[in-house]
Amino acid sequence: MRATVMYGAGDVRVENVPDPSLVEPTDAVVRVTQAAICGSDLWPYKSMEPDPNGRRMGHEFIGVVDAVGSGVRTMKTGNLVLAPFVVSDGTCVFCQEGLQTSCLHGGRYGFDGVDGGQGEAVRVPHADGTLVVLPVDEDDALMPSLLTLSDVMATGHHAALAAQVGPDKAVAVVGDGAVGLCGVIAARRLGAERIIILGRHPDRIALAREFGATDVVSERGDEAVERVRELTDGLGAHSVLECVGLEQSTVTALSIARPGGAVGRVGVPQGESIPNAPVFMENVTIAGGPAPARAYIEELLPDVLEGRIEPGRVFDRATDLDGVPDGYRAMNDREALKVLIEP
Ligand SMILES: [Zn+2]
Questions:
Q1: Can you tell me whether residue 241 is helix, strand or coil?
Q2: Which of 58, 223, 243, 343 could be joined to 118 by an S-S link, Cβ 3.0–4.6 Å?
Q3: Residue whose C-alpha is closest to residue 156's, from 190, 126, 182
């Protein structure tokens, strides 16, 4: 089969790799119908050391079950399934607590002999614990929105929960990438009326407004902090969603939280340090991390199926596998917001 392999910064190739097959009785093999390029795929795209063995890419996908091991109970051949961005067994203490990203027997796509999602097929370990059977057909128009539940929409929701979003709270979202935009959807969904987005890309800001953002701050650094304070009676935001992960964006997020507020961090941290002083002195809560998408799918799925949220609108480009390398380039150049792959 064909799959996406990264060999180093800026070096993404689509090549022939071995076809996946069942290894453990709890495995399923899934033929991928939709996948995506993630903002987090851009970090290795910018910085990966050359590796002659390459690294299989992709962790967001939907597909049709092609084969199941003898121990798989919840799905059968032909079922359409959604894959959260990590593997989890569904039974360990952390899975039981809804923190599948810390599963004691979990794993990641593209590592330890597991295929990446940006290819024709994937062997999924712990199929019962990992995959969710979707109650729609393969060609359903909702597919892009359903695909976001594997990562970006779940991550935006996680940021909103970690930031303690709720009715009557002023929310600020740092970052106008796909996760930030999903953070706006999540904040609106949880009842926030005031949603300030910090970003400067006109198309993304326009989409943020359609998703429910009420105010836009296009300044950066100290000026951005000043603007958010002006918009919040000089106090700062109750809830701040940090959806970038750079040191500067994290500093901004911490600086615009009001005393007693909360910052939900979901951008994969690229900086080394967090400034402690204002956070400590103002009793600001910092929470967040990788989203347990598997835990949130049950809650978010009805909203997608019934059209109450449309996170699939973050996809502004689609390609087959041949176009994947250019998809990486386009997202890295901020020419595309998020790329949908139809192998
Ligand atoms: Zn587990």
A1: strand
A2: 58
A3: 182
Q: Strands across the sheet with 285-288, in order? A: 215-217, 194-198, 170-174, 237-242, 257-265, 285-288
CA of 292 to the centre of ligand 1 (A): 11
Q: CA 190, CA 187: separation in Å to the nearest integer?
A: 5
Structure tokens, 324: 């994947």
Q: Which residue has the tokens 């910018």?
A: 46
Neighbours of 135 (CB within 10 A): 10
H helical segments located in 169-285: 178-189, 202-211, 221-231, 247-256, 277-281
How many whole angstroms from 85 Cα to the centroid of ligand 1? Answer: 14
Domains in the chain (CATH in brackets) are 2-151+292-341 (3.90.180.10), 153-288 (3.40.50.720)
Instruction: Give counts: helices (H), strands (E), the chain.
Output: 12, 18
The CA 76 to ligand 1 mean position distance, Å, reads 22
Q: Which residue has the tokens 């939900």?
A: 264
CA distance 208 to 281: 32
Question: How far is the centre of ligand 1, averaged over its atoms, from the C-alpha of 139 (Å)?
Answer: 31
Q: Is the pTM of this model over 0.85?
A: yes
H or E segment and range at residue 285: strand 285-288
How much distance in Å is there from the Cα of 104 to the middle of ligand 1? 5
Q: Measured on CA atoms in the order 14, 341, 180, 137, is the torsion positive or negative?
A: negative
Tell me the pLDDT tens digit for each residue of 275-330. 665 677 789 999 999 999 999 999 999 999 999 999 999 999 999 999 999 999 99
- Ligand 1 centroid–CA 69 distance in Å is 19
Output the DSSP codes for 268-282: PP-SS----HHHHHT
Vertex 320, ends 318 and 322: CA angle to 5°? 125
